[in-house]
Amino acid sequence: AKMMKYLLFSSLEPEKLTTLKELTTNEICRVWAATSRHIRSQLLQKRAVDIGVGTFAVVPAQATVGEGEVLPLERPVFRLSKLLKKFYKLKCPKTKIPEETPSVQLDFEQIAADIHFRQEIVEQCVHETLLFFAGALRDGKEVEFSFR
């Protein structure tokens, strides 16, 4: 149900992004840097993280080294939600996250404490950024999101 709010039937109204308007670029970057650190710490604990538009996880992979030697490793992936993919008619590579992987939501309280921001500011900043992301998908704009 949380994901439904990212299915936009019409172009995004700028007044929906009140928190992003009030924050400086630096503050928005701080929120996302802390969010990235939080996601990374969950991935290191073998948990998948659902951020509302999709899920970050670590999946088993293999690397071939030398003479047919196979090295098992893990790689981070992002799987866009099925609903979003369908709604925006997006083509993405299929990513399977192992079923036994426990999934968690973002812990806004912890992220906020990490950067000494109010929890609702962090929550709104993340939500509005994802809304902006959905708006760009809806309007067929190219979007680049980078996580450290």
From TrEMBL:
GO terms for cellular component: microtubule organizing center. It comes from the Eukaryota. Transmembrane segments: none annotated. Signal peptide: none annotated. InterPro entries: CCD81, CCDC81_HU_dom_2, HU-CCDC81. Residues 12-91, 104-148 form the CCDC81 HU domain. Pfam families: HU-CCDC81_euk_1 (PF14908), HU-CCDC81_euk_2 (PF18289). This is CCD81 protein. The gene is Ccdc81_0.
